[in-house]
Amino acid sequence: MTTLLLAALLTAAAADSANGTTTYSSQLSGPSGTAFIMQSGPNGTKPIVRKTIRPGYSILQQQSGGNSAIVIQQQSGD
Prior knowledge:
The chain is mostly beta strands.
C-alpha cells in the first residue's frame, strides 16, 4: 500500500515599501517532488491559491497581482 503525503503551504514575505508590493510563495510537496511558486502582488491583497490532488498527478495554481502561475506534477509510473 502506498501512502500519499501532500502538503500545501502559503507564506507572505515582508512588504517592499519602495514599490508597494508584497512577495508571496506557495509550495506543494508530494511523492513526485516539491513545487514552489513565487509572485509579487499589491500590498494588502492575498493571492488565490488552489491545489488539485488526483491519483498520478497534482496541480498547484497561484494568482497574484493580475498574474497567474500553474505547476503540474506527474507521478512516475512503476
